[in-house]
Amino acid sequence: MTPYSEPVFHAIDRGLLCCASFLVPERQRAEWRLEWESELWHARRSKGTSGAVSWRTEREVADFCFGAFHDAACLRRLWWQNRPRFGPLHSSASQCLFWLGGLLLVSYLFSILLPGVRAEHDSSSAEVRAGTILIQDGGANSDSVPTMAVDQIRIWERSRQRYADGFAFYRVARESVELGPHAGVTWQIAQTSSNLFAVAGWSLHYMVRNDDARSDMPRLVLSERMWRQKFGANPDIVGTVLLIGSRPARIAGIAPGDAWRLPGNSDAWLLKPDSEISPNGREYVVAHLTRSGRSEMWGGLVNIASYDSRGLEHDFLGKSFEEQTPGPGNIYWFGVFLAFLALPAIASVSLAEYSFSSHKPSWIRRAVRLGFLGMKIVLIMLITYFSSVDLAYWHSPVFSHSGAYVQLFTSFAVFLFGMQWALLDQRQRCPVCLRRVTNPAQVGLASRTFLAWNGTELRNLCTCAVKRRCFSAGFSPARELVRSTR
Amino acid sequence: MASEAKLSHTAAMILQAIDAGLIYGFSIMEMTGLPSGTVYPAMRRLERDKLISSRWERQSIAETEQRPVRKYYKLTAAGAEALGASRNRYPLLERMIPYVEVKSL
């Protein structure tokens, strides 16, 4: 080897020490490196002087440096064993509730401050009117395409039916929209009858002034999503004119967040008089059921039969908007329900209250203990709700399917592990003062039950059947137990 | 005694080496023949159990001798007591690691 290789080996050795130092806790790292670099100097000096570099020497020095990893790992283990514990912070019952309340406050504040979550709350409060349905052809598999012929519905509407008291129609097409002098975009525009929002029972946000509304210009209703994305949720946009294709249309208001339930994924709705609705085309049909119509509904569905002028029967299917997609509240309760089902798989639901023990605390103590557990569960449920909504909707201004899945998963996971913690924490507390015990004995429930049951059996055996044999040589309680259970 | 019960042969060798005047990590390694991955972690544990204590030498001494500063270890009272008990348990300990002449620090 050449003398020039010495700095290379030196750099490798120092690199090894540097890598190992990342295992050392940060507070001790600088001192640790200083010590090891000093020791490395001595190791190099003892193995050979400069100019006499050999593979054997370098291998020994490298072995020395590899030992630094063991030392660093040892320091890390010692630090981990002596790390400050969170336990004492919530050792008393009131401290535990205080910390849970703090968590609840933080998650609640997030739900107020995050615009997506706020929008979700607003849209949940503007729910679709009860009895609003989407009517489809009886043979239609999905609602992704319009399937209803308008004239069929008109015939049914004019017949002496008593199921529905309002109908609205729309179809969706992609059209170019001029948002500014050089800002053209393509939107999904729903050409809809002017009563669509009235039938669904939605009132528009930031409605246009009456004198503007009376103009002959077609009216455009923006979806909340587009209003937030393209106009920065500016309410002054209402009343301005946009070019839809080549026709001007005045923005008449902002649709409520719940309007995402309408199929077609519309970015805006262009309201047209009924006379302009083509009777021959296929459209989406929204209807409002009367009381008798709602009584015919089963599982969010209602079957409708209509006869045309030639006496031919047409079957329609009405799907309730209310039961199409659950809101955040329903998703949360479903997640909590699933977590309840899964809880016995990961936690013992027993609270170590045994009928075997005669040392039971007074009923007041037991009531306080149960009350403490109940308060923990209530706080965990509230934390679960707010944290799941925060995580699911913080980035999306309106309800989305991915958000619904995130909320379901979060509700399930937070509640499941929160309950696991609550039950474990309950068992690790003194039943009298409710403080956490410093060194709880971890006894497996199954083996404890087993021992309690077996102990009872052996005592019975001892007092009645095998009393004399207990003291005879070679007595095996386990063998006796097996023999007796046979 | 608790410390006596805990001391392994390696720990006893290291205590003996420190007592014999080998007061920094590499010299202990050389004398005991133990690898660095054994000696240094054992010294951390002995220091945690307060059987040895450490201190850095003065910068001026290291500069005079033109070398990096060393971290020196010495036995505590509990360490000396534990070593005494270990010598009874491992009678060859003193013969394995003889005393050396110690320079003043």
Account of the protein in words:
- The complex is a heterodimer of chains A (486) and B (105).
- Helix content of chain A is 49%, strand content 16%.
- In chain A, strands 3-4-8-5-7-6 form a six-stranded mixed barrel.
- In chain A, a hairpin with a 5-residue loop joins β10 and β11 (313-320).
- Chain A is built from 15 helices and eleven strands.
- The radius of gyration of chain A is 37 Å and the shape is elongated.
- Chain A folds into four domains: 5-81; 93-127 and 327-442, no CATH class; 132-320, no CATH class; 447-485, no CATH class.
- Chain A has helices at residues 5-21, 26-47, 55-81, 93-113, 115-125, 150-158, 196-200, 210-213, 224-231, 291-295, 328-346, 363-393, 401-427, 445-465, 477-485; strands at 132-137, 148-149, 164-180, 183-193, 219-222, 241-244, 247-254, 268-272, 282-289, 301-307, 313-320.
- With 486 residues, chain A is of the alpha+beta class.
- In chain B, 57% of the residues lie in helices and 10% in strands.
- Chain B has seven helices and two strands; from the N terminus they run ααααβαβαα.
- Chain B has a two-stranded antiparallel ribbon with strand order 1-2.
- Chain B starts with a helix and ends in a 9-residue tail after the last helix.
- The interface between A and B is medium-sized, with 23 and 21 residues.
